[in-house]
Amino acid sequence: MTVQWGRCFNFKKCKDAQQGHHIPVQVGAAFVCPRCGQGLVEENADAPGEDTKEPLVARTKRPSTTLVVAIAISFLLIAGFGGFTAWRLYAMKTPKPNVAQNIILRLAGSNTIGDELGPALAQAFLEDQGATNVRILPGANPQERVVQGFLPGDSFVSSITISAHGSATAFTALAENNCDIGMASRKIKPEEAAKLSSLGDMVSASSEHILGLDGIAVVINPSNPIDHLDKDQIMRIFTGEIADWSQLGPSHGTIKIYARDDKSGTYDTFKSLVLAGKTLAPGAERIEDSKALSDAVAADLNGIGFIGLPYIQSTKPVAVSEKGTLSLLPTRLTVATEDYLLSRRLYLYTPSSPHNKYMRTFVEFALSKRGQDVVGATGFVTQNVAQVSQTVSENAPEEYKQLTRNANRLSLDFRFQSGQTILDNKARVDLDRVVSLIADLKYPGDKIMLFGFSDGVGTPQSNQALSVSRAKAVENEFIQRGLKPAILRGFGSGLAVAANDSTDGQAKNRRVEVWIRN
């Protein structure tokens, strides 16, 4: 392994600096102190080479007076000839991993988010803060990145580090104070939230932030003639009960299963939505990286896997259904409205009272229109609202079909906490997005229609009442923002988008749709 050597000069806080340690860093990795995160000063010429036989103790504690004097003399000479300013300008043109730097944010967690979306958001955020010469650099391994730039007035590099080893690692990193913002492609689990209680209520709106939307696509080789599968068939394939393609259609051959690893939020969500407590087939090939899994399925005639929407690439997604619902492909519309059965939310988690000023501003940027544009540009589904034309199912209630005949649907639904008329965290942010869109388009309130729905738990009468109450809850929020919807209807448990025999399905069915009359 090729290494470069450096010294840390953060004497107030770092033991490595205080003890004069010579620190080895793999070439290509961020040139920062592993103990405190401060940028290192390069000393390759004065440090032992990687092939030296000098004992490690001697290498880490050897005197460094010559180095310190040399650095001091060099700076005096540069300053005396007026060259320091020129050097600074040169350095600002090309930020490098071994330039002295200040780590302003640390993100850790989901590979789905951290592979491309996280670095792209960090780059756009630094640019939004006025940083110059911003670029994305590789970290110590393929699941890590460093995004660097010069903030206004600074002569040193400011960095955002991104470590993307799976959603579970977001919560361990937050617990160990090894990150500022946790990235997760699934909702935090109750036991994880309990361990982080010292940081606040992790499911409150101040800690849980919905970054964007994604659909877990069930993908097969493009040559496979199968176009759709129901959730039960998918479950039986991935648990090994269905082992040959001939059990499903004209194809034949032993099914080869590809799945994400246990740290993956994608796997956690798939396990929750599809496997229903059953165990993944023992012959499944487990893969940490989303792109690698996609490539493996695309190259295997008998392969099947599950992957986030941006990673479909050369594979073929199948439409998914369950009893009583239509088969839907994972598209931007079906995922944006969360009607697609395997749609999911992407999350950022922060302490309720952030100690770092950049934590709040980064989250605010990520949820803003520009931040959501980045979400969409990287292949996920943005939460920026748009009008869409939609074909209504023949199974829809007759009044619903009549009201929507000359109308467009907005690309989101408002959803609620279980059994209540209280909007969930995403819906609260979506309210302002919808109002902004309607204001931008200069639509009067008499064009707005709100249609409420419930899950199938309870009597038809109670479900009808709940669906109306939910539509009224959204109406009240609109009125507070200066808009009075023209039409409000409740359709009970009619037009379900998911089966009502699971908590996830029930949550999808508790919704309010927004339509705009032409």
Could you explain how this protein is built, in words?
The protein has 518 residues and is α/β, with parallel strands linked by helices. It has 4 domains: 1-81, no CATH class; 94-211 and 344-383, 3-Layer(aba) Sandwich (D-Maltodextrin-Binding Protein, domain 2), CATH 3.40.190; 217-336, Periplasmic binding protein-like II (D-Maltodextrin-Binding Protein, domain 2, 3-Layer(aba) Sandwich); 385-517, 60s Ribosomal Protein L30, Chain: A. It has helices at 15-18, 56-61, 65-80, 83-93, 111-114, 117-128, 167-175, 190-195, 231-238, 265-275, 290-298, 332-336, 357-367, 369-377, 398-403, 425-441, 460-480, 503-509, and strands at 3-7, 23-26, 41-42, 101-109, 132-138, 144-150, 157-163, 181-184, 208-215, 217-220, 228-230, 256-260, 285-287, 303-307, 316-317, 319-321, 343-349, 387-388, 407-415, 448-453, 487-490, 511-517. The strands form 5 sheets. A 7-stranded mixed beta sheet has the order 5-6-7-4-8-17-9. Strands 13-12-14-10-15 form a 5-stranded mixed beta sheet, with helices on both faces. A 5-stranded mixed beta sheet has the order 18-19-22-20-21. The radius of gyration is 27 Å and the shape is globular. The chain starts with a strand and ends with a strand. Residues 44-99 have low confidence and may be disordered.
